[in-house]
Amino acid sequence: MNGIFAQVFTIATLAVILTKTAPLLLAAIGGAFTQMGSILNIGLEGMMLVGAFAAIVVGAVTNPFIGIIGAIAAALILALVFALATLTFKADFIVVGIGINLLAAGVTVLLLTVMFGNAGVTPGNIKAILPKIDLGALAYTPIIGPMLNDQTLLVWLAFLLVPVYSYVLYRTPYGVHLRAVGEDESAARAAGINVTRVKFISILLSGAFCGIAGAQLAMSTVGSFTAGMTASRGFIAVAALTFGLGRPYFTMLACLIFGAADALADRLALAGVNSSLALTTPYVITIIALVLAALRVRSAYKARARKALASVGV
After folding, report:
1. What is the pTM of this model?
2. CATH number of the domain to which 141 belongs
3. According to its record, how does it sit in the membrane (predicted)?
4. Beta strands in 94-202 (DSSP E)
5. Tell me: the pLDDT tens digits for 233-271?
6. What is the CA radius of gyration of the chain?
């Protein structure tokens, strides 16, 4: 038991946690934009998946950084489909999100088959791996150095985007409009806010962030694409932003918890723990987080209802 503990809880595990958290955090921030506009975007999974595919295909032909641009472009296409279907044709957000995920899964397998003759994985000569950032002498700083050293640019970007998201949400006119739309759409429209435009931008932002998340997922270590490689990370991102109520730092904290669970599952498997048991760890924590989030939302609704009743003297 002590041997397993020593293998799992190491400095290297902290580095893996950051690597695992980055794609979740990027996707969750994207989903938080739509959540703040009262749109639950469960299409994050599909947008991440096409982003991962485009990152490898484009990155292998050009270079990994162009691959990131390709990933963003591919995810934006799905985000545009989502926006048009929901905002222009008034389709249900949940139904369209499910459709986006199914479309992404089918299209990526089709393209794998057509382009490479293999429906499961890209060939060995199709590789794109993001370079790691060497911190030099800073890498020898206790705990922090080994944890941050040899991470990709997108890991750094993911965490730096949290304060950027906070600034946009609370310090810019667009953020004010987005929160107003999420709080009371009718009142926002009466105040002259273009609700459709605000929501449209939020959906496109979610697509861009998911594209970057897919690029990090595909090009951080493996450098290849496998069918269904997102493995429900988009849904975990939805759980994280729901648990964090779409707020920047709470969402980041939730993503760190899920990233830690994912890293723990990998380390347990390497330590010889039953792989099936280890792989269930992130999903068990996801369920617990969703239950806690539901209890928080219910408590908030009850408090709001009591406040409303008190205001009218009931």
Report:
1. 0.89
2. 1.10.3470
3. Multi-pass membrane protein
4. 132-133, 151-152
5. 999 999 899 888 899 999 999 999 888 888 877 766 665
6. 20
